Amino acid sequence: MKNILKNNKGFTILEILFTIAIFSIIIVPMFNLLIVSAKINKSTETEISSLSDVQKTLETIKSYSKTEFESLALDGVSTQFQGETNLYYKINPVNEYQLSQFSTDDTLYFIEITMKNDNGDILQYTEGTKLLAVNLSGGGE
């Protein structure tokens, strides 16, 4: 009978609980790290996408011909861009633009592009300029 008790090769309940506790202490923070990483990744993806959309809109407006550009609202009022639900542009002429190499008929415009979320909070913002010069070949753009 003593031989059977000394030859016990199984684990005790205490050893199993201790192993589960150590395993939990290691695994739980790893799962939390994965969750935080996924949230940061999604946030960054959204930010990069919105920045790309804002930059693309600015470049689209800057590439417009003089006729297309002048068909936009040039009065400094924030206006929705071509049916986009969350992209707005604001264009103002820059009155202080007085350089000798340009004609007095040339106009420099300051362009602001804003992306807002559904609550109206600004997600992204960028700005740029466009010069409508009269003396350029190709129709004065």
Attribute tags:
141 residues; alpha+beta; 3 helices; 43% helix; rod-shaped; transmembrane; N_methyl_site; membrane; transmembrane helix; Prepilin-type N-terminal cleavage/methylation domain-containing protein
Q: Estimate the global geometry from the Cα principal axes.
A: rod-shaped
Structural class, by secondary structure, is alpha+beta
State the distance separating the first and last CA atoms: 103 Å
Question: What is the average of the pLDDT values?
Answer: 83
| Helix and strand sequence | HHHEEEE
Radius of gyration: 32 Å
Strand numbers in spatial order across the main sheet: 1-2-3-4
- Please work out how many helical segments DSSP would assign: 3
Low-confidence stretches: 136-141
- What does the largest sheet look like? 4 strands, antiparallel
Strand content: 15-25%
Briefly summarize what is shown.
The protein is an alpha+beta fold and 141 residues long. The protein contains 3 helices and 4 strands.
What features would you describe in this structure?
Keywords: Membrane, Transmembrane, Transmembrane helix. The chain crosses the membrane at residues 12-35. The chain has 141 residues and is of the alpha+beta class. The protein has one domain. It is built from 3 helices and 4 strands. It has helices spanning 2-6, 13-63, 66-70; strands at 79-80, 87-93, 107-116, 122-132. 43% of the residues lie in helices and 21% in strands. Strands 1-2-3-4 form a 4-stranded antiparallel beta sheet.
